[in-house]
Specification:
CATH class of chain A: Alpha Beta
Structural class of chain A: alpha+beta
Order of helices and strands of chain B: HEEHEEHHEEHEEH
CATH topology of chain A: 60s Ribosomal Protein L30, Chain: A
Structural class of chain B: alpha+beta
CATH superfamily of chain B: CheC-like
Strand order of the largest sheet of chain A: 1-3-8-9-10
Distance between the termini of chain A: 24 Å
Largest interface: A-B, 34 and 36 residues
Oligomer: heterodimer
Number of helices of chain A: 2
């Protein structure tokens, strides 16, 4: 029986097929799903903020896109994945509340997506698919077995990328 | 000056925050009860220090569809306040206010606007009482509405707090009887010091 492992906010879990990983209610946060298609080891990181260097006194690496993606890759490699084979899918980065003054903080969703993409690129990991932006929350389930990334949103049909 | 940090052992500070939550939401709920001309009960507030991974589930089911009215707080203290209720409940609330039967399906534009205004009035009542108590200037922003999964809505104040710490401290109030919902006040970390020193701690 396959388990679905739950990932909280600013958290990360890795798993091996046939298990899956899920995170519920991604808002501006981004769910970064990375897997090795050969060993079928995959992980899901739920990052909240784009840049760890702008913030002091934080010990949680998975809070940030930059440190979160790095750590996710390291953990996958430790678990037996090959870094060169890793591929990614990303979802989230919405803007939940529409404020008129578009300051930095409010547009954090876009920044998160951009930061995740930059970090994946830096590590030479291809993004196979994405479902990002707009203004709704997403629940995601990632299956390292097939690489399917299932996305559910309120009032929308479930889709798999 | 009080130096407040995010540790759980300081019971006195927690009690003060609870009392602030109590006074604030007491005023807010009174405003709501007046507006609707009905009775609204309120529970004892909770002050919670949460790991981010637990934030999504504080109100129960993470995928529960909620309506959240969110206002940024500016002035002497900064942060945010949110008025949250279940989507179905928000329809009942609007129906009570407008004197019509609850509508089917999604909220239309007028209903959304009404809900924002309700949120605006009652969070203003909350912040007003906090301002009176502390003698600090507190200005709420225009309200913004979001109807979505609880976890996705709650991630917004969490992200803001994430800029300064690894945990989220919030003052939560639940009210019920006819209408049930929550207030969540999330002052920025610096603002806690200002609140405490303003009342002589």
């Amino acid at each position: 029986m396959a388990d679905i492992i739950k990932v909280g906010m600013a958290d990360m879990k890795i798993c091996k097929a046939p298990d899956g990983v899920t995170t519920i209610g991604l808002g501006s946060c981004v769910g970064v799903a990375v897997r090795d298609p050969v060993t079928k080891i995959g992980g899901l990181a739920h990052v909240m903020l784009p840049d760890s260097t702008r913030i002091t006194n934080s010990t949680n690496v998975y809070k940030f896109a930059d440190t979160g993606v790095d750590s996710l890759i390291n953990e996958l490699v430790k678990a037996g994945a090959s870094k060169t084979r890793l591929v990614a899918k990303i979802a989230g980065g919405a803007q939940m509340f529409a404020f008129q003054n578009k300051n930095d903080l409010i547009r954090v969703g876009d920044q998160n997506v951009a930061a995740v993409k930059a970090k994946l690129k830096e590590n030479g990991i291809r993004i196979l698919a994405e479902d990002t932006g707009l203004n709704f929350g997403r629940t995601v389930i990632f299956y390292p077995e097939t690489g399917d990334y299932v996305i559910r949103a309120v009032g929308k049909d479930e889709r798999t990328i | 000056m009080a130096k407040f940090n995010l540790t759980e052992d300081d019971k006195v500070y927690y009690d003060v925050l609870k009392e602030i939550g109590n006074i604030g939401s007491g005023n807010a709920v009174t405003a709501l009860a007046h507006m609707l001309n009905c009775k609204v009960d309120m529970s004892v507030p909770q002050v919670r220090l949460l790991d981010f991974k637990d934030v999504g589930s504080i109100l129960g089911d993470e995928e529960q569809i909620m309506a959240g009215v969110y206002l940024m707080v500016e002035g002497d203290i900064t942060g945010s306040i949110m008025f949250l209720l279940e989507k179905e409940c928000s329809k009942n609330l609007i129906a009570m206010l407008m004197g019509s039967a609850p509508s089917e399906g999604d909220l239309n534009e007028i209903e959304q606007s009404a809900l924002k205004e309700i949120g605006n009035i009652i969070t203003a009542a909350y912040l007003n009482s906090l301002s009176t108590l502390t003698n600090l200037k507190i200005y709420p922003s225009v309200p913004s509405l979001c109807i979505d999964m609880a976890a996705a809505i709650l991630s917004v104040p969490a992200i803001e707090f994430g800029l300064i710490g690894d945990k989220l401290l919030l003052i939560e109030n639940q009210f019920s009887e006819g209408i049930s919902g929550y207030f969540i006040l999330v002052p920025d970390l610096d603002s806690y010091d200002k609140i405490f020193s303003s009342i002589g701690m």
